[in-house]
Amino acid sequence: MGWYRHWFGTRYYSLLYGHRDDADAAEWVGGILERWQLPTGSSVLDLACGRGRHVRHFVDHGMVTTGLDISEASIADARVMVPAADLRVGDMREPVARNAFDGICCLFTSLGYFDTTADDQQVFHAVAAALKPGGRFVLDFMNTLSVVRDLVGEEMLEREGVRFHIQRQLMDDVLVKRITVSDGDAVHRFEERVQALRPEEMEAMAVNAGLVIEETTDGPSWDPFDAQRSTRFVLWARKPNQ
Q: What are the chain's domains?
């Protein structure tokens, strides 16, 4: 059982990452659709969609939207928030459909959770299989180079009276975050493990899956990715026309 099955969907996950709010989701979806120029009624898939904050904005923009997440609790919440979307529990290493989507997104560092990079490669192959010819893909990942360089080993945070003790380290090319949650008298422990994937590794995976890289940026903006200064690594690709 992957660590993400025990952590995603919990109240504490939502508290810790609450800074990724509705305004942030609106900026991402607006930036994606500005770049893709998809007409109303186009089909979009949000991989690792969580509770559906990006899904909702795709629907509001007139996209026929599917969301996939491995957390049953997150999908249950998303179905309440966005009843107009097709929301499914599933593993993003498996294609949702074949030649079905005009656009696919994978946002907020939702890659690299698996045991091997072969699993990550499967995600790219699943994306390529699910896209229509000419379809577009965007992957939002941390800038691993700057995260490793500026790694904060330990910090304490408080959210709505809940205390988070966070410890971080790089172990065998995996970024490990140990989270101790103190909620009143209750103490809970969680862990995140994300492969320290470098930009060139993800680009190679995209090409290996048959995708064509269009460009790389820093966030949803048009600013080009800079390995030394960017906070995010965003990969924009497409499936060739056949």
A: 3-142+198-238 (3.40.50.150), 147-193 (2.20.25)
Give the span between the Cα atoms of 30 and 65, in whole angstroms. Answer: 15
Angle at 2 between CA 150 and CA 151, to 5 degrees: 5
Helix axes 22-36, 53-60, angle to 10 degrees: 50
Amino acid of residue 190 = F
**CA-wise closest residue to 140 among 227, 199, 85:** 199
Sign of the C-alpha dihedral computed for residues 242, 141, 171 and 165 taken in this order: negative
Q: What are the structure tokens assigned to 139, written together?
A: 């992957």
Q: What is the pLDDT of residue 1?
A: 44
* 2-34 pLDDT per residue, tens: 666 677 778 888 888 865 678 889 999 999 999
Element (H, E) at 102: strand 101-106
Kindly tell me the burial class for residue 237, based on how many C-beta atoms sit within 10 Å of its own C-beta (0-12, 13-18, 19 or more).
Answer: buried
DSSP string, 188-209: EEEEEEEE---HHHHHHHHHHT
Q: Cβ atoms within 10 A of the Cβ of 175, count? A: 21
Cβ proximity of 89 and 75 under 8 Å = yes
Do residues 167 and 177 make contact, with C-beta atoms less than 8 angstroms apart? yes
Phi, psi of 172 (to 5 degrees): 50, 45
